[in-house]
Model the fold of this input.
Amino acid sequence: MLNNDFRGPVSIDDAPPGSYCEWCGKPARYQLVVTGGKRHNEEGRFCPACGEAFILAVASSLSRVTIAEKAHDSVSL
Done:
């Protein structure tokens, strides 16, 4: 799981016992809640792999830099 201690847009808690991952159906370990941005208060219960993918998707949606901008910045003139 990504290190997210108060530095990211997602709150990470333990999933309640008996919970299942919303994406893959495996036993859930984390309950994640988005704490800002377009996806504010979106939440779900996830296994470690899907939880990391969820956090990356949320972080990606908050990024203001597009791939085209990154490519342009790396070109030397």
